[in-house]
DNA sequence: TGCGCAATGTAAAACGTTTAAATAGGGTGA
DNA sequence: TCACCCTATTTAAACGTTTTACATTGCGCA
C-alpha cells in the first residue's frame, strides 16, 4: 500500500498538483467549487503533506534545535516547557539533544576541549538537519563564549553565560537584593550569606545584590558573615555551624541555593536551633524538595518557564531578522513559606 | 553567500555528485586517490549534507517522535534521558512534543474527548514530519488503549497503560512485594499500606504485591491497615493519623508514593512519633525531595532511565520489522535510607 | 588479438512538494 | 471586432540528495 501524495490527491480531484498546494496553503485564489472538491478528497484520504518535501522546497523547516546540557537537572524541563509553549503557538517543532554532561563518563567541567567537541557535534548535527536556530540550555558553571559556532544560524543561550552572545538570564542581583529587602522588612539587620563557589558568575551577582542591599539599608556588615560554600548540602551544613558559633551570630541567612539551605536546616536541627523562631533562612531555586523540608523553606523561585518563552521569542526574532528588541530579563519571585520570621529580639 | 551543496563539492573535486555521495556514505568503492581528493574538499568547505534532502530521497529520517504528557512531571526527564542515550548511539534524532496536560487550561483527565483531540494532533504532526516511530511518555492515570492512531507507524507507550498496545512498564507488583519482604527482613509483621486511588492501575498492582507478600510470609492481616489516599501529601498526613489511632497500630507502613510519605512524616512528627524508632516507612518513586526529608525516606527507585532505553529498543525493533522479543520489564530498586528500622518491640 | 570482467566513473531520474511562468477562457471598453 | 485584462488553472523547474543504469578503462587470459 503506497503512501498517498499530492499527485494522488490532484488526480482524484481532477486538478493539477499546484491547485492542491494552493488550496492547502491558501497562497492563491482558487475557485470555491474547485477548492471544495480538493478539500473533500484530502479529507477522504486523510492526506497530510510530507513536511520533509515541503521543507526541501520551501527552505523552511519550522524546526528549532534545543540543546540541553542535562535534561535531568531541575531547571531544564521547565525551560523546555516554555520553549514548547512558544513553539506550539507558532507551529514550530523541537529537535532535542541532551548533552548529558553530568553523567557522561570521563567528563568534567574543567575539560573544555572534550566539552567543546561534544557540544559542537550536537550543533553540527542540528544544523545539518536544517534547524532554523538553536536554544542552548545550560546549567551555569561555565562561560560558553566562543566555544560553539553555528555557521551563522542564530543561537540563544539560557541558564548559562556567554558574554558576547545572546543569552537570556533572570536577574540574579535583583533577586538577592529582593531577598535581603524582605528580611529587612521582617525586622532583620544582622544578615549573613552562604554563597556558592566564588568563581561562578551567579555567586558573584547574588553577592552583589546582597552587598548592595546591605549598603543601601545601612545594615550591619561583618566579613565573618560571608561564608563560601560549594553548592552542595554538606557545605551548607558545615557553614551554618560556623556562623552560629560566632560570638554574635546573625539572625537571618541568605543561602544561595536550596541544596545548601537543606544542609543548613539539618545543622540547625541538630544544634537545637529553632527555625524560624531563632534563625530565619531564605533559599534560592525553589527546588521541589524545599516545599517538603521541615520547616518549608522560603525561597526564590526562578522564572524558568518565562525564560524558555523569552529565549524562543528572541530566537525567532533573530531568525526572521527582526530588530533586536532588548527585553527586560524575567524576574525571580520570592515564595514565602515557613523559614522566615522576625528576629528573636523583636519578639516579646 | 550561497549555501554550498553536493554539487559545489563535486565541481571542486572534479567528480560527479554521485562520487561525493559514495564517498560520504561508503556505499561503493571509490579509487583511494579520488576519495582523498573529495574528502579534502569536503573538509575544506566544512560541507555537511542537507539531511532534509537525504531524507526525502532515502525515505529514512532517522528521527523518532517523543510525546510527553507533561515534561515537568518528575518521571519524564529521566525517561527522555534514556531515550536520548539510545538515540545518540544509533544516530537517531528526537522530535519532541510536550502535551502539557496538567497545565492546559480547561483540561482534566476525565475529559477524554479533549485529550484525544490534543494528542491526536500531536501524533499527526509528527507523522507528517516523517518520524519513523513514536514514544509516548505518560503520567499514569488513564488507559490509553485505542485513543490514538498512528497510521501504521509504530508507537510504544511508557509510564502509562495501553492494554492492547505495546507498552513498557516496570513491575509494580514485584516492587511492592520487595518492599514488604524488606520490612519483613527487618522484623516487621504488622505492616499497613497507604494506597493511591483504587481506580488507578498502579495502585491495584502495588496492592497485589502487598497482599501477595502478606500471604506468603503469613503476616498479620487487618482490613483496617489498608488506607486509600489520593496520592497527595495531605492524604498521607490524614491517613497516618488514622492508622496510629488504631488500638493496635502497625509497626511499619508502605506508602505508595513519596508525596503521601512526606505527609505521613509530618503527621508523625506532630504526634511525637519517632521515625524509624517507633514506626518504619517505605515510600515509592524516589522523588528528589525524599532524600532531604527528616528522616531521609527509604523508597523504591523507578528504573526510568532503563524504561526509556527499553522503549527505544522496542520501538526500533518494530521499525525495522524485527521479531518482537519479549523483554523482562526493568525492575525497581529499593533505596535504603533512614526511615526503616526493626520494630520497636524487637529493640531491647 | 579479442573477450569477459572488475573497478571506477557519469548522467539523469527520482523523492514530494512549491512556485514562477505560461496558458486558457472569458468578459469589457473602444 | 480587436486588444486588453482578469481569473482560474496548468506546466514544469527546482529544492539537494541518492541511486539506477549505463559508459569507460584496463587487465588477465585463452
Description of the molecule:
The structure is a homodimer of 348-residue chains. With 348 residues, chain A is an alpha/beta fold. Chain A folds into three domains: 6-49, 434 Repressor (Amino-terminal Domain), CATH 1.10.260; 63-168, Rossmann fold; 172-302 and 334-346, Rossmann fold, CATH 3.40.50.2300. The first copy, chain A, has eleven helices and eleven strands. Chain A has helices at residues 6-13, 17-25, 32-45, 51-58, 75-89, 112-128, 172-185, 201-216, 233-244, 258-270, 304-319, and strands at residues 63-68, 93-98, 134-137, 155-158, 167-168, 191-195, 226-228, 252-255, 280-285, 298-301, 333-335. A six-stranded mixed beta sheet of chain A has the order 7-6-8-9-10-11, with helices on both faces. In chain A, β8, α10 (258-270) and β9 (280-285) form a beta-alpha-beta unit. In chain A, α1 crosses α3 and α5 (75-89) crosses α11. The mean pLDDT of chain A is 92. At the A-B interface, α4, α5, β2, α6 and α10 of A face α4, α5, β2, α6 and α10 of B. β2 of chain A pairs antiparallel with β2 of chain B. The structure holds a DNA duplex (30 and 30 nucleotides). Chains A, B: It comes from Paenibacillus phytohabitans.
Taking the sheet with the most strands of chain A, its summary is: 6 strands, mixed
Elements of chain A, N to C (H/E): HHHHEHEHEEEHEHEHEHEEHE
- Tally of structural domains of chain A: 3
Shape of chain A, please? elongated
By oligomeric state, this entry counts as: homodimer
CATH superfamily of the largest domain in chain A: Response regulator
CATH class of the largest domain in chain A: Alpha Beta
Individual helix count of chain A = 11
CATH architecture of the largest domain in chain A: 3-Layer(aba) Sandwich
Average residue pLDDT of chain A: 92
Give start-end ranges of low-pLDDT stretches of chain A.
Answer: none
| The CATH topology of the largest domain in chain A | Rossmann fold
**Helix amount of chain A, in percent?**
40-55%
Q: Count of DSSP E strands of chain A?
A: 11
- Beta-strand content estimate of chain A: 5-15%
Class of secondary structure makeup of chain A: alpha/beta
Radius of gyration of chain A: 27 Å
Main interface by residue count: A-B, 48 and 48 residues
InterPro entries (chains A, B): HTH_LacI (IPR000843), LacI/GalR-like_sensor (IPR046335), Lambda_DNA-bd_dom_sf (IPR010982), Peripla_BP_I (IPR028082)
Keywords (chains A, B): DNA-binding, Repressor, Transcription, Transcription regulation
GO molecular function (chains A, B): DNA binding
Pfam family, one (chains A, B): Peripla_BP_3
